[in-house]
Amino acid sequence: MPKGSRDPLGFQVLWQNVGRSLIPELSTVSSSIRDFQVMALAHAYKTSTGMTDRDYAAFFLCLEQLMAYVRLSQFENEGGFNGIDRTKKLLNDGRDEVELSVGNQLLSNQRSYGIWGKYSRPFEDMGIGKDKAFLQVQEKKIADNQKLAALVEQLAKKRGAAVKVSKSSLADFATPLQRPEGIERKLYVDYLLTDTCKGRLLALVAERPELIDMKFYQRLGRIGDLASGEELGSLAIGIANTERVLSPLNRIFRHLQTRSSWSDAELADDDLITSWSASFDGQSQTSLDFGISGLLGRGNLEVVQGLVELNARVCARRGSEPWLRKRPGMLDVNHFEGSFTHSAYQPSLDHDYTYFINTWFHLYKQLN
To answer: What is the distance between the alpha carbons of residues 98 and 66, in angstroms, rounded to a whole number?
Structure first.
């Protein structure tokens, strides 16, 4: 896979920077309270026992495995998590026990693709693991469940070696994954549902719960209206306008990839490029460089030439070959990964990047 193949136009850093202007710490994949709860339990136990980082790595994997079996067997509303397919398979393999061990991982690389890989950065960045009240809540959750406390101690001592747990006993370990209430809920709200506007987003959603289930642009537009004249309103509109530039340009690029070559006449006559490039005229209302935002609203050949040049610059920074090459009268496509055309795409309604907004609202729903 070519270096940077998933982001040939360098848009990831752009939309993430704009998203961070409102949502400071969450990631696109840190959207499960139960994943945060597993992270919190492991971190609190490490902190209280002084466990070494080396031992913690093995302990974390085994605790994550235990909680995966508990989640799938005890919670009907479990929406899914990384490793769920193998968890299902092992739960239904006809054996009476599950094995918790470094050698029996739920993913090809559980540390990279499981909870640790997805949640350790936001967990650290938001500072929740340093909050003494939060740590006390997690320690109490373990101490109040004697069977869990004993098993957690055993996992720590085994340092990744196999520990067998009866499937019939999994219900005994479910209490720490119950929906957060009281002080635990308050702490999660305080740390996870932060924004750069001193909590204004949280307060606004509490006042206007209809925002919760709105679509991307509808929600941002409504926030912009409700918080007009405020920093929150300005940021919401800025995010929406940024996406109205990046998304159609991304779709045009992916559309170009669906063929090995295009003639200038074919490019000039392509209705999708024409429609998508004319979908937004508010380029000046974004923080994007005009070299990107200014591509919209031009003729098809100018838009394509701009995307070719943008991809060439991105690839040059990464030391890789350009995906597209323009020569007199023709466009050659050299790389097809990620190519698609969705002719029903509507730039005014559909979006490609999340700006961490979706994560924030998904967590809000789980905490309320």
So the answer is: 9
Which of 40, 50, 35 is closest to 156 using CA atoms? Answer: 50
User: How many C-beta atoms lie closer than 10 Å to residue 237's C-beta?
Assistant: 20
Residue with tokens 């909870």: 115
- Quick one: DSSP state of residue 180? P
Q: What are the structure tokens assigned to 73, written together?
A: 């067997």
Are 264 and 327 spatial neighbours (Cβ–Cβ below 8 Å)?
no
CB 104 within 8 A of CB 87: no
Structural tokens at position 79: 């929406």
> In the structure encoding, which two tokens stand for residue 195, read together?
């924004």
- Residue 341, token pair as written in the block: 């055309």
Q: What is the residue type of 76?
A: E
Task: Please give the Cα distance from 53 to 34 (Å, whole number).
Answer: 23
pLDDT at 251 over 60: yes
In this structure, the strands spanning 97-100 and 163-166 are antiparallel
The residues that bridge with 262 in the sheet, in sequence order, are 331
Residue 4, pLDDT > 60, answer no
Q: In the beta sheet, which residues pair with residue 333?
A: 324
Question: CA–CA separation, 211 vs 220, rounded Å?
Answer: 9
Instruction: Return the pLDDT at 2.
Output: 36
User: CA 117 to CA 111: how far, in whole Å?
Assistant: 6
Q: What is the pLDDT of residues 341-357, one digit of tens each?
A: 999 999 999 999 999 99
- CA atoms of 140 and 160, how far apart (whole Å): 24
Instruction: Confirm if 29 and 4 have CB atoms less than 8 A apart.
Output: no
Token readout for 349 is 């309604």
Query: Where would I find the H helices in the chain?
Result: 11-20, 33-49, 53-74, 84-91, 110-113, 115-126, 132-143, 146-158, 182-192, 200-207, 216-226, 231-256, 264-269, 271-277, 290-293, 300-318, 357-367
Evaluate if residue 1 carries a pLDDT over 60: no
Which residues on neighbouring strands pair with residue 261, listed in sequence order? 332
Give the closest residue to 81 by CA, choosing from 23, 36, 148.
36
- pLDDT for 119-178, tens place per residue? 999 999 999 999 999 999 999 999 999 999 999 999 999 999 999 999 999 999 999 999
How far apart are the C-alpha atoms of 260 and 272, rounded to whole Å? Answer: 18
Q: Which pTM does this prediction carry?
A: 0.93
